[in-house]
Amino acid sequence: MTDHARPSLRPRIPHFSSGPCAKRPGWSLDALKSATLGRSHRGKEGKAKLAEAIELSRAVLGIPKDYRIGIVPASDTGAVEMALWSLLGPRGVDMLAWESFGSGWVTDVAKQLKLADARVMEAPYGQLPDLSKVDFARDVVFTWNGTTSGVRVPDGAWIASAREGLTICDATSAAFAMDLPWPKLDVTTWSWQKVLGGEGGHGMIVLSPRAVERLTSYTPPWPLPKIFRLTQGGKLIEGVFKGETINTPSMLCVEDAIDGLKWAQSVGGLQALIGRAEGNLAAIEAWVARAGWAGFLAADKRIRSCTSVCLTIVDPAIAGLPAEQRAAVSKALVGLLEQEKVAYDIDAYRDAPPGLRIWAGATVERSDLEALFPWLDWAFAQVRAKAAA
To answer: What is d(CA 226, CA 242) in angstroms, rounded to the nearest whole number?
Structure first.
């Protein structure tokens, strides 16, 4: 491993963070020059911009016309929390978790909402729980793509069409890179900072007619903070889904989201975005096969994420070390790459097994990944030699 020469070609954009993610190709501050700044978001122009972001999201993702789409506070986390606190309670709930964020939703339901009939179905990092065991007479909460584990559900075939409960899907690192079956999803959430490379702080929530019916017919027994309220007097607050946000949004972030959505349309829409992400995953898979020292946390190719690609070190000299030492090797590898300015923020998530996490979503150019691979090999050779010394 020590014979790897120091590469000369560098990634043009070395941004492989899993959030906030790389900006779209060709992005510059000029993309924000039409932002509605210094004006009220409740004024005519501000509401028009917010409504444009909503309708562009509908168009790019192919969201049905009778589904409501809203911009909500606190990123994807806020959107998921809004759904949990507003909708859960009238039925038992199946909670699916195979990574840190899904586990966080389990904690909220079990320890904060304290629902008595909450069934938890868990799997370790790199795997999925048995989806055939999910009961769709109950509400179901799950992440489509586990951002911190690199594991996604393979498709929507496991979700019952004729279900009694609601499906609540955290799709933050899946939306715009994976095909979401809207008729099977009652609540879907994501944030702007993921696949289209937008800025953090704003969440999106999509409600099916079934979710709206639950909202308007059910009142939770616990108090709801203002930022979670989607109904008033038993009726949906329709303005939330027309650009009248619950709190003040950043109009710079709104403009940036619009720019990302227009870029998505310009490259061919959703299928082109999916193709870009899947192509990036294929490039990483080909490199892993060549390199020999890295492997996928998601060993099953069917459930391997095409956005947050999580890798482990399988080289025998490192893989056999205690977890603390393996983590130190990974951090040294990440630090060396950052020092060389060829890859930023690619360490595994703090709760995940030691390794690397490389964002491969639609805004990442395959050519930048191809330029990164020799640096990964070179850097690993350096840290492996030091670990073995």
So the answer is: 18
